[in-house]
Amino acid sequence: MFASLSRTAIPRTSTRCFSASARSSAEVNAAVFLEDKAGELVPAAANAVTAAKKLGGKVTGILIGKDEASLEKAIAMSRKLGLDNLLVRHAAALEHALAEPTAPVLAELIKKNGFTHLAGPHSALGKNIFPRVAGLLDVQQISDVMSIQDADTFTRPVYAGNAISTVRSKDAIKLFTARASTWEPAQPTESECSVDVAAAENVGPGASTLAAWISEELVKSERPDLSSAPTVVSGGRGVKSKESFDSTIIPLADVLGAAIGASRAAVDSGYADNSLQVGQTGKVIAPALYIAVGISGAIQHLAGMKDSKTIVAINKDADAPIFQVADVGLVADLFEAVPELVKKIEAAKK
Q1: Which domain covers residue 59, as residue numbers?
Q2: Do 281 and 344 belong together in one domain?
Q3: Is 156 among the annotated ligand-binding positions?
Q4: Do 57 and 105 reside in the same domain of the chain?
């Protein structure tokens, strides 16, 4: 049975904390930490640039790494993001962006250049580095910023997205991470900004005293990246096993050219890798199309996908909470509905 459902907004409250008058855009001198991976910018870096530009003043990008050669591609990409300037700092200790050596470099750049703001992606790396930078500068970090009202006032989600907190900071330097799903990525420009490349100063304690890089395991896939894909197909506990997850979710994702996601229940049950988890403790995404298969819709999962442009839910339980936020709902056995849907999509593409 097909059912067209109007989306019901999740109730939200707003918490406001106000203090001094807002800083004017003419006084803003913002910096953006441009996160890179294997020498290339991560998609969320462009979203953080957009957030920084919202402040209304000058915006400078900051790239860090082992040496200039390893950052060549990232530098080329960064120069075309509409930044006013680009600072590149390198040192052997910065090769893997460990927080201990990286945070002092960022803190030093902020103080030397008089930056009033430092923005960055709300990623695992951003959440690791920014609190340390805030501690070194004796200011409070603002996490997961969804919107900016002025140079001192930000909104961010609390209570798994059920409440939106509006915060005005009195700190002279504002540090914040930006939620990628609520900011459009900065688009490439024809003009290029100037670049200042130099050896990093004030590199923090090395591996011998606090932290050492051991290893990294990367899962490579030709499939679109979950964090930025326009279409996502996610499976939940309802798929019942890893074998069923692979035989049901993957074919649908393949025919749609979509990324694959999973609920925490599916990840905890071993159906999917934890890198695919969508939700409060996983990735927060907002694709153009999100298809939830066998997902009941716990509040923790909704926190990670409720901002999707169109939500389609397939579940045999008509009372599942996921239908409250779905634009289109299909009450049916997923093991019958999904294969049929795949066949119809394949036929339509011929």
Answers
A1: 9-199
A2: yes
A3: no
A4: yes
How many domains are there within the chain?
Answer: 2
279 is in an annotated binding site: yes
More confident residue, 224 or 212: 224
pLDDT in tens, 110-130: 999 999 999 999 998 999 999
220 part of a folded domain: no
Q: Please check whether residues 241 and 157 belong to one and the same domain.
A: no
For residue 42, say whether it is annotated as part of any ligand binding site: no
- When pLDDT is cut at 50, 70 and 90, the band that residue 10 belongs to is very low
What is the reported pLDDT for 224? 87
**Secondary structure of the chain as H, E, C letters:** CEEECCCCCCCCEEEEECCCCCCCHHHCEEEEECCEECCEECHHHHHHHHHHHCCCCEEEEEEEECCCHHHHHHHHHHCCCCCCEEEEEECHHHCCCCHHHHHHHHHHHHHHHCCCEEEEECCHHHHHHHHHHHHHHCCCEEEEECEEEECCEEEEEECCCCEEEEEECCCCCEEEEECHHHCCCCCCCCCCCEEEEEECCCCCCCCCCCCCCCCCCCCCCCCCCCCCCCEEEEECHHHCCHHHHHHHHHHHHHHHCCEEEECHHHHHCCCCCHHHEECCCCECCCCCEEEEECCCCCHHHHHHHCCCCEEEEEECCCCCHHHHCCCEEEECCHHHHHHHHHHHHHHHHC
One domain, residues 193 and 237 = no
236 with 179, same domain: the answer is no
Q: Indicate which CATH number applies to the domain containing 336.
A: 3.40.50.1220
The verdict on whether residue 253 carries a ligand-binding annotation is no
Is 294 a known ligand-binding residue? yes
Residues in the chain: 350
120 annotated to a ligand binding site: no
Residue 289 has pLDDT above 50, yes or no: yes
Q: Is residue 211 part of a domain?
A: no
pLDDT band of residue 141 (cuts 50, 70, 90) is very high
